[in-house]
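Deliverable D2.4 — example input (structure tokens):
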């Protein structure tokens, strides 16, 4: 309760100081100079409508060395480079990826079923 009384007294003292300052200070001109214009400036619109057009792009030169080098190589050429012995060795290699099985030890509860994505 003493804090509330202190705030009330301090507030009254500040208001009294405002009235005293208003009476003692001499009135002056407004420190802020404003103009009649407010907001964004008006948009200037040209009188003549301008149309812009772009020239079409030239056709690409499909016979240049860069285009020919970037084209993918055909599959028969790549298979021809691989010898028959290498293809046979590749066919005999066993697969490395094995199916991993793991059992999960948890009990299915109605809460777990409620928040699962089983139905989607």
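Example output (designed residues):
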């Amino acid at each position: 309760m003493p804090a509330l009384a202190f705030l009330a007294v301090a507030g009254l003292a500040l208001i009294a100081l405002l009235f005293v300052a208003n009476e003692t200070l001499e009135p002056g001109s407004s420190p802020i100079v404003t103009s009649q214009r407010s907001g964004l400036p008006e948009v200037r619109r040209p009188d003549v409508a301008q149309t812009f057009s772009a020239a079409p792009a030239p056709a690409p030169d499909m016979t240049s060395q860069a285009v020919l080098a970037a084209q993918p190589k055909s599959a028969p050429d790549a298979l021809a480079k691989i010898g028959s012995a290498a293809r046979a060795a590749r066919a005999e290699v066993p697969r490395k990826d094995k199916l991993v099985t793991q059992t999960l030890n948890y009990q299915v509860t109605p809460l777990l079923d409620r928040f699962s994505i089983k139905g989607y």
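The chain has a mean pLDDT of 76.
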